[in-house]
Amino acid sequence: MNNHQHILVAIVENEPGVLNRISSLFRRRRFNIESISAGYTEKKGITRITIVVNAGDTNVEQVMKQLYKIVPVIKVRDVTHDNILAAEVVMVKVKADVKKRGDIQQIADLFKAKIVHVEKKQIMMLASGERDKISSFLDLIKPFGIIEMVRTGVTAMNKDINL
To answer: What is the DSSP annotation of 87-98?
Structure first.
């Protein structure tokens, strides 16, 4: 992660349009969202949104203050420098004739990726881990021929305290 990237975590009420309002705030501030992921939490009706954004410290503080003005936002925290576990998931479909499957299997094993679907000429894999691990996995798989790929974006959780 570069020096200007920040990982923000927002706890919001699960209401229609909340994600759109949050992303619009970043767009108006002309920040590029590197990744954004959202999902249900252990509390009914509450969603956790993880946003990786390129911005300076002062700008991030301003955006965080603006986020609190969006009614359904309960809490926002910049966890960039906290003791966090940050990971993402990738699903990738790769060209794989019979001759190449052993090599692809070895790479999958090395990165603890799961082969989730196999056809005559392709293999579909699922991998999770830190951003750099996922990038390294994809770098090794790329020469086989990536047919299709999707990455979830970073999801982060503080190891020490509750958000």
So the answer is: EEEEEEEEE--T
Look up the domain containing 132 and give its range. Answer: 85-157
**Rounded Cα–Cα distance for residues 110 and 103 (Å):** 11
pLDDT in tens, 4-15: 889 999 999 999
**18, 70 contact by CB (below 8 A):** yes
Identify whether residues 105 and 74 lie together within a single domain: no
DSSP 80-143: TTSSEEEEEEEEEEEE--TTTHHHHHHHHHHTTPEEEEE-SSEEEEEEEE-HHHHHHHHHHHGG
The residue assigned the tokens 């959202």 is 38
**11 close to 74: Cβ distance less than 8 angstroms:** yes
Q: Which of 43, 62, 82 is the last residue of a domain?
A: 82
Beta bridge partners of 90: 127, 151
Do 114 and 124 contact (CB within 8 A), yes or no?
no
Q: What is the pTM of this model?
A: 0.84
Given 52, 82, 112, the domain boundary residue is 82
- Residue 103 and residue 140 in one domain: yes
